[in-house]
Design brief:
Elements lengths: L4 E5 L4 H12 L6 E4 L7 H6 L8 E4 L2 E4 L1 H11 L12 H26 L7 H18 L12 H6 L6 H8 L3 H4 L1 H10 L3 H6 L3 H14 L4
């Protein structure tokens, strides 16, 4: 009997996008993707994630898995015989990948929100904070092709959805990310050559339009 897989998601969400990339990397393409409306959350979402009531939620044969990082690990373990293996096999490298994934999730959008929720434009301190965050990630990348080393892996899956938001940040701040973090941008372009990333990443211009809608909604346009 075939697995029944449902993904509750929202198209601009990098947390949803990373789950879709993980599924694609594992060759799992036959699943039901359902868009959620934050203003009117579905009964299914509220039932499957009663604690946080947010996306993404992966429902596998009727059982929900919540929180994107946990979902990616579940996908990697549940379909362990499907190449590639996403998480590093070495315990130290696995711990480091989890550390940077957690760091990104605590900092990336927290910093971005401060930038575009300002009515009169981003101040220099907030712009610097965001660029410094990207530079920390760039240092971790080093001279490796991917955060996973020679192969695209867990941390690449986690981080590459952020790449779609770079353009919006640049338009809101007039900061040139490629000039500030050329190695990180080169990594993003390299990842974009993968079918899983090309298929799943939302268009950067559409993300920018979405950010403008958010700014208008919060009275910051």
């Amino acid at each position: 009997m075939a697995d029944e897989i449902v993904l509750l998601e929202f198209w601009p969400s990098p947390f949803s996008t990373r789950v879709k990339i993980a599924l694609q990397e594992k060759g799992i393409t036959n699943y039901d993707s359902r868009q959620e409306d934050f203003k009117s959350k579905s009964t299914l979402l509220l039932t499957m994630n009663p604690v946080h009531k947010k996306i993404p939620v992966l429902i596998h044969n009727g059982k929900p898995i919540c929180e994107s990082l946990a979902i990616i690990e579940y996908i990697d373990e549940e379909w362990k015989h499907n190449s590639p293996t996403l998480l590093p096999t070495d315990p130290y490298h696995r711990a480091q990948a989890r550390f940077w994934a957690d760091f990104n999730d605590k900092m990336f959008f927290h910093t971005l929100r401060k930038v575009w929720r300002q009515k009169d434009g981003a101040n220099e301190e907030d712009k610097k904070e965001f660029v410094d965050l990207l530079r920390k990630l760039e240092v971790e990348l080093g001279d490796k092709p991917y955060f996973g080393g020679d192969t695209f892996g867990y941390l690449d899956v986690v981080l590459i959805p952020d790449y779609s938001w770079f353009y919006a940040f640049e338009k809101c701040t007039q900061v040139n990310i490629e000039a500030e973090c050329p190695t990180l941008v080169s990594w993003g372009k390299r990842c974009m050559e993968r079918d899983s990333v090309k298929t799943c990443l939302p268009d950067q211009f559409r993300i920018h339009d979405y950010v403008l809608e958010l700014k208008k909604r919060f009275g910051n346009d």
